[in-house]
Design a protein that fits this description.
Shape: globular
Largest sheet: 8 strands, mixed
Strand order of the largest sheet: 5-4-3-2-1-12-13-14
Number of strands: 14
Oligomer: single chain
Helix content: 25-40%
Distance between the termini: 12 Å
Strand content: 15-25%
Length: 268
């Protein structure tokens, strides 16, 4: 059988505005898996949160995978093992945390099970509720030893985050990259890491031609994935500027089976 592979963002794409999967999307994914195609969650969320979502969505069977931390860690959801991990250099955490705090920006990273932050903030509490993850407050991030950071996340106003992004580009060019998953979330990952990198790596790993790949997304951090896949399907609810980076725009949005539309048109 000529297997295809479908990469889907979670928030604003596979999930509706209530963070649920619609019955139509669920049915289409089930049909695709039954037909032998591969389904890959592609998210900025940490692995622990992505695993919770995968279990809730029923995406833990054979043929199910997860791209987490915006490409920083790739996971086989069926065999429950990490396929590839690209960590952020640990020595960069402390200066970035210190600078972010001075700018009035909430910032955190992750252990394998918890969000790690130096302060408890309203932004932390809201983010933890959305991702269903517990958090740990640490006196200093550089004193935490037993964890591997795959991503740093900054949360603040767009203006403050743009200023931080500019500083990161100045001081860490070629070492770190940053991009927005929405206007108040700035994702910071190792250079070269992106959902687009993960799309190409997954196709090569599974032996599926890139011509058989389809990706769905709605935000800036989805752009590399939309451009890397053969079919880049932009959700109807995406920001207007995202459409230029795909080659298909859905008729239905994330609240009305937009992912099912993509699967039935390009996968099944």
């Amino acid at each position: 059988m000529n297997s295809k592979i479908f990469f889907t963002d979670l928030d604003g794409t596979l999930l509706n505005d209530r963070k649920e999967i619609t019955p139509g999307n669920r049915a289409a994914i089930s049909e695709a898996l039954s037909a032998g195609h591969k389904i890959v969650i592609a998210t900025g969320r940490p692995l622990a949160s992505a695993r919770i979502q995968a279990e809730r969505l029923g995406l833990t069977g054979e043929g199910c995978y997860a791209i987490t931390y915006n490409g920083g860690l790739i996971y086989d959801s069926f065999h429950q093992n990490v396929l590839l991990g690209t960590p952020v250099p640990k020595e960069l955490l402390a200066p970035i945390f210190t600078r972010s705090h001075a700018m009035g920006i909430h910032i955190h990273t992750y252990s394998s099970t918890h969000i790690l932050s130096e302060y408890e903030t309203p932004e932390l509490r809201e983010y933890a509720a959305t991702t269903l993850l517990p958090w740990t407050i640490v006196p200093s991030i550089e004193e935490v030893r037993d964890f591997i950071p795959y991503k740093i996340l900054a949360i603040s106003s767009p203006e403050k985050l743009l200023a931080l992004q500019k500083e990161l580009q100045t001081h860490y060019s070629g070492i770190l990259e940053s991009f927005f998953s929405c206007d108040v979330l700035l994702e910071i990952v190792p250079a070269g890491v992106s959902k687009g990198f993960a799309v190409k790596w997954m196709c090569d790993y599974l032996g599926i031609p890139l011509a058989n790949s389809v990706a769905a997304g709605d935000a800036q951090n989805d752009i590399p994935m939309l451009e890397a896949a053969h079919i880049g399907a932009v959700m109807a609810n995406a920001l207007p500027e995202i459409a230029a980076h795909g080659n298909y725009v859905t008729t239905a949005d994330n609240n009305h089976d937009g992912v099912a539309e993509i699967i039935r048109k390009f996968i099944l």
